[in-house]
Amino acid sequence: MTDSLVTDNVPPLARRSAADSDCIMALAGPDAAQFLQGQSSNDFANTSPGDARFAAFCNPKGRILADLLVVTAAPESFFLRGRRDVMTALSAHLKPYLAFSKSNLTLLDWAVTCVSTEERTMAAPVAHIEWQSGVPIAISVPRGECYIEHWRAKDTIEQQPSMSEVALAEVDIKTLRARIETETIGAYLPQDLNFDLNGTVSFNKGCYTGQEIIARLHYRGTPKRRLYAGQLANSAIELSAGSSLEDPAGNKIGTVVNYYRDTDHISLLAELVPASAENDVTLAEGGARVECLTTC
């Protein structure tokens, strides 16, 4: 079952269950690979079935509109995983470009879950695709060395969730993978989130939206912000993506990118001015200190 993502009237992320925070889209058609190549930051010119690559869609100023995990199913068929509300906004942004492309973007009625595994997974993500009557019904993608993402059509799910199931937000934090949230659409350059260092941006491909600014910073400049991991000792602290971070003098030095509430603390990813990360970093609202800061 599919729906047009542009017209998908979804509730705010805050009212969603964790399992529904991310969605799967299908991009298919003769121009699908060319469309990805011209619109996203990674290289999709020569992918093979099972290839899994992270990518970002940016605006002309190089600011990230959405982050995706893309799996190639066939030369003209790709599956894209991203935050549901972020993907809804991205689809509206891409609609004029799709009108001139021989490809279609559709929202699938699929679920996204993660599990932890004791077996070491492959360092480079290679997806396993399950087919039924020539149609993909499930995809598994390794994440780091300890986790696997499972994407599956909801009408094929029969068993109860695995006891080893882990929230995708927790996996993203532990694997140091920054995500764009509804509050931060268009807020960050790829370098702010280390996308230039972790394979999300290709500097060997042709032009794509925002490429000129991103490449200029890569070759001629120095990023003003970088990604850091940290913790807040109190799990009850009010927090949102984009919350401002300050130095001891009250200067804004960065923002919270993502966070995950554990039993007794909050784990987070933040983009910060590197020099400021050597001193105390606190939330602008409430003054809580970010502890255990480490570079990603």
Structure description:
Strand 3 and strand 4 (64-74) form a beta hairpin. The protein is mainly beta and 296 residues long. The strands form three sheets. The protein has a six-stranded antiparallel sheet with strand order 1-6-2-5-4-3. Strands 16-13-14-15-12-17 form a six-stranded antiparallel sheet. A five-stranded antiparallel sheet has the order 8-9-10-7-11. The protein has four helices and 17 strands. The longest helix has 15 residues, at 84-98. The chain folds into two domains: 2-188, Alpha-Beta Plaits; 224-295, Elongation Factor Tu (Ef-tu), domain 3, CATH 2.40.30.110.
SSE layout:
Layout: E1 2-3, E2 22-28, H1 32-39, E3 52-58, E4 64-74, E5 77-83, H2 84-98, E6 104-108, E7 110-116, E8 128-132, E9 135-143, E10 147-153, E11 165-166, H3 168-174, H4 211-220, E12 226-232, E13 244-246, E14 252-261, E15 266-272, E16 282-283, E17 291-295
Antiparallel strand pairs: 1-6, 2-5, 2-6, 3-4, 4-5, 7-10, 7-11, 8-9, 9-10, 12-15, 12-17, 13-14, 13-16, 14-15
